[in-house]
Amino acid sequence: MNRAALHALLSHWWRNPLQMLTLLGGLALATALWSGVQAVNAEARASYDAAAATIDEAQFDQLVMKDGGPIDQAIYVALRRGGWMVSPLIEGMVGDVRLVGVEPLTAPGASLPMALQTGGDVGAFTSAQGQIFAGPDAVEDLAELRADIVVSAQIPPGVAYADIGVVQRLLDRASEVDILLMNPEQPFRQAGLAEIAPELSVRKGQAAADVGQLTGSFHLSLSAFGFLSFAVGIFIVHGAIGLAFEQRRPMMRTLRALGMPLGRLIGLIVVELFVFALAAGVIGVVLGYLIAAALLPGVAATLNGLYGAELGGALAWRPVWWVSGLGIAVGGTAIAGGGALHQLARMPLLASAHPRAMSMAAGRRARLQALAAFGLLMAAIVLGVLANTLYLGFATLGALLLGAALALPVIVDGILKLGRGFSKSALGQWFWADTRQQLPGLSLALMALLLAMAANVGVSTMVSSFRMTFLDFLDQRLASELYVATSTPEEAARLEAGMTDMGVAVLPIQWATETFGGVPTEVYGNRDHATYRDNWMFLESVSNPWNAVAAQEGVVINEQLYRRAGLSVGETIEIAGQPMTIVGVYGDYGNPIGQAVITEALFQSLYPSVTALRFGVRVPEEALPEVRSKIVEDLGIPNAQITNQARLKALSTDIFDRTFIVTDALNVLTLAVAGFAILMSLLTLASMRVPQLAPVWALGVTRRQLGVMDIGRAVLLATLTALVALPLGLALAWVLLSVVNVAAFGWKLPMLLFPSEYARLGVLALLAAVLASLWPAWRLSRTPPADLLKVFSHER
Amino acid sequence: MNAKGLVIAFLLAPVAAVAQGFAGLGTDADGFGLPTPNPTFNFPNDHGAHPTYRIEWWYITANMEGPDGTPYGLQWTLFRSALAPEDGEGWTAPQLWLAHAAVTTPTDHFVAERLARGGVGQAGVTTKPFAAWIDEWVLEGDWQTLDMSATGAEFAYDVALTAEGPLVFHGDAGYSVKSAEGQASYYYSQPFFALEGHLHLPDGSVPVTGQAWLDREWSSQPLSANQSGWDWFSLSFDDGAKLMGFLLRQTDGNHYSSATWIAPDGTTQAYSDGAFDAQPLARTPTSGPEVPTTWAVTLPDRGVDVTVTAINPDAWMGTSVPYWEGPVTIAGSHTGRGYLEMTGYE
Q1: pLDDT score at A363
Q2: What DSSP assignment string belongs to A522-549?
Q3: A755: distance to nearest CA of chain B, Å?
Q4: How far apart are the C-alpha atoms of A492 and A473, rounded to whole Å?
């Protein structure tokens, strides 16, 4: 009996291949989108990690020679034996590549390149032959060296890492070390530095930019959109399953009448859906892989990590992604099919078929739906204001999306009713009325379109806001092209004089530590320079805050100090006894402590004991080699004390451009899914609509005109949906940036608007709707007159 | 046997760890020396490093008490792991050093770990005079007396050891077999150290006295493939006798055991597989996995039937190779105290 019943059930799909395509296609696309977003996340994470790795050795306190020269390796051993947890580092230039020698057993974890932190063969790395870890760009420069080169995408451009002994050999600097990195954790007791190595001094590390938090926020938001994309797919699946149930009611009634127990019938349907979900899930994960592979050429490493064999074959298979892809497909189907199964379970044995039940029930449900939508939207507003945990943040998102989706048919229906009032001609009035009449059948597809568009608007806003913020943040932190760390005031003076001779701007980096309202804060004395005026973004400020700073009247503070000490613009704080007015608050993403900036002259009078030893040097890209060689050769400052940040910034920008390509593609895909939903709904409705069209045709409207009106109807509905989607998308982005992010990380990402981007998305959405309606319209215009005539002769 | 060094050797030299166990041959396929039966030891040279063997350790555990009778445990361990059977000067020397230090109180367990390359002077062992060191951690003296110190982020200790008995050789005169297939190591101990010194803990310094047990072991053959971990006991009974015993657990559920009975005068009797047994009585949660911290230990030939209980069940060593190591008390047919080490628990 099972076999016969299953055969009967499946025959429905055989007779309605389009519906099967809708179901499978919708689920597969939804799963593919989900997998695609996972791929983007993984790609972004790997890239940020590589970018973040370059900043890292500077975060540690360092021991350097007071005279700036190399350190004898014996001093390193003496310090270790005196209880100092230090790790030697040597570096030199090979062509354009900075070759860094590290000691992997003692190096503080974060100072090692990712490729080494996550494993690697210590034996091969420390062997006499040695291994050089380098990015693909550096291979050419290093080819001549006598060492094995390990190409790793995780190494930032322009840098290569090898064992300290290997680099000493390659640079012909036996027993020499440039810097001793200090481990943040030092033992319970240790000998005094002055006793062991009086020739060394401590150079303070810079507070590390915690890029992890920033990117964590990005991933969280992208994951939220992954779910959203999936939700779009679920709407389609829900529609397809619902329709199939309605249409199969006669069959189920017959099966039940023939003695099939309800439980077994439900069981068979569950099996059927499960098989569909698995099939669609597999297609979706593979599709996601193909999408990701096509979108992200050259990041094979990430994809390999995501879908299977990792570099070197250490990890051959990562089933978690398949499981998550298939799980979400099955789970989605369960959600989409649950309602239908519930109905089936409660259906009277001999219930008659309702091929248009969805539309018929719509009227009854409309009021209820409007009420629910209103309630949910109100809840979203209240939650949006009050939400202070991640959980509530996501609840806000859920209420907002569900409320908006439920409200959509009600809103569109209202507008259509209005439109009818404006229409004078009979045909016009029929057009509006017929559109309204179709609305219930199309509403699920329109909700999918709404969510797709809203997701796209939200994604674009979020990603673009994030990009701008992150790049501004990098500009702010790494405004100068070169960073030079000098060891003595004499060396610093030499650098300033030498650079001024060349007409190159030098920006001292100097700070003193203070506490404001219990918040540990670094007070910086910045030189008045266009670098700051051009690059620093203020969250809140008076006009021209830098003028007030330069006039020794104002201070600008970072968001961390602003929020934690509860300060505000216009308020006065005392810096070393000097009352100063807060004139601006700037975003300082990832910095764990407070920061305040005053002008250089004032800083020097307030903190006469602080001498600037670090400097930013502003050089045009083309003059970089010249300036660099001047600093090294003429001024005698070791290469190791110079950091080139231009490459790091170029790298970061590149990463974002890649992320953009991917989000763009995801936008198009989501809309394609929504377009697909519209197409399927229109095709489903087409055959049912013949009785309604026949009279109009009989009254003299040509089939061609009817087809054109169908396209117009699709455009109209898509436009109305787009109008609802735009504010919804913006609300979505706002919730993510200002509610979810604050709950998760404690700071807001500024929300920036990109109208041209939204216009482009709107056009894309309309295009999707037009494309989706073309085929049904064409079919309509080709309906044989005989079919239309049959309506009148009751022969249908 | 403090065989965690074997795991570390595996970790640091994964390629080299494919030695096939052919006891009796002088060297393995990679040129590392292999222990052979009937060894003759040559002191003080053998107190020093044997760089042609893959793995080696200087391993001290101590049971102590403070002025108020509070029991304390202490550990000082230096491991050597060779990437190749040679020594050398400079960074290319293929010798890696790793050290663990710990202090256990009834409520706390402090752990520190150090790693160093050989060849540059940061870590090593010399014999004339004897000194073993890594960074500022030192074990030095003439083996009649030894000074020992170590420091971590939250603790430090400085203690002096005085030998009150002879060296003790395990297995067959220091040739200690580790599996039915014949894997073996050279293994001797000085279990008769009296200890005196100071622990420096977050709450202040504590003067301590007690007894320490020093293990020396080196080999090139790690465990056999089916051995998953071990439970090692060093027990000092109140009547002056001592017992060293270990179980090497096998993946098939069986185990390989070995033990040395040490009389108060230092004379020994070795017991081969099956004579010594230890059964876990209760597992307790730790900072790592759950491990058995109460054991029933038996050596029927000597009438030993005791319950061994951890002084601080959470003596988990969260080091790069994690394991459990801490002081224990002994009750039953014999009373006393000792040390327990357990590895391979997940």
Answers
A1: 61
A2: EEEEE---HHHHHHPPEEEE-SSHHHHH
A3: 53
A4: 27
- CA–CA distance, B103 with B110 (Å, rounded to integer): 5
pLDDT in tens, B138-162: 999 999 999 999 999 999 999 999 9
Q: What does DSSP assign to residue B172?
A: B
Give CA–CA dist A766/A744, Å, rounded. Answer: 36
Give the residue from A86, A90, A122, A182 with the most B CB atoms within 10 Å of its CB, the best one to mutate.
A122
3-state secondary structure of B151: strand
Name the nearest CA neighbour of A652 among A479, A464, A478, A474.
A474
Note the pLDDT of residue B102.
97
DSSP A137: G
Separation CA A356–CA A362 (nearest Å): 10
Q: How far is CA B127 from CA B2, B33, B49, B132, B228, in A?
A: 22, 20, 8, 9, 34
| Beta-bridge mates of residue A595 | A522
Is A81 in contact with B136 (Cβ distance < 8 A)? yes
Q: What is the pLDDT of residue A117?
A: 53
pLDDT under 50 in chain A at which residues?
54-55, 208-209, 298-317, 353, 355-356, 358, 795-796
Cα dist from A555 to A551, A564, A572, A602, B27, whole Å: 10, 17, 9, 11, 73
**Given this model, what pLDDT does residue A456 score?**
81
Contact A606, A575 (CB under 8 A): yes
With a CB cutoff of 8 Å and minimum separation 6, the contacts of A273 are A241, A333, A334, A337
Is residue A446 helix, strand or coil? helix
Cβ–Cβ of A106/B116 closer than 8 Å? yes
Q: Which helix (H) or strand (E) holds B75?
A: strand B71-82
d(CA A638, CA A55): 19
Measured distance between the N- and C-terminal CA atoms of chain A, rounded to whole angstroms: 33
What span, in angstroms and rounded, lies between the C-alpha atoms of B294 and B256? 20
Classify residue A318 as exposed, middle or buried by CB count within 10 Å of its CB (0-12, 13-18, 19+).
middle
**What's the CA gap between A759 and A752, in Å, rounded?**
15
Instruction: Using the Cα atoms of residue A191, residue A194, residue A197 and residue A202 in order, give the sign of their dihedral.
Output: positive
Task: List the single residue in A77, A85, A165 with the smallest CB-CB distance to B92.
Answer: A165
> Concatenated DSSP letters for A42-95?
HHHHHHHHHHHHHHGGGGS-EEEETTS-PEEHHHHHHHHHTT--EEEEEEEEET
Tell me: the pLDDT tens digits for A559-575? Answer: 878 877 888 899 999 88
Backbone angles phi, psi at A571, to 5 degrees: -75, 160
B145 vs chain A: nearest CA distance in angstroms? 22
Pairing of strands A511-516, A97-102: unpaired
pLDDT higher for A394 or B267? B267
DSSP secondary structure letters along A573-618 = EEETTEEEEEEEEE--TT--SEEEEEEHHHHHHH-TT----EEEEE
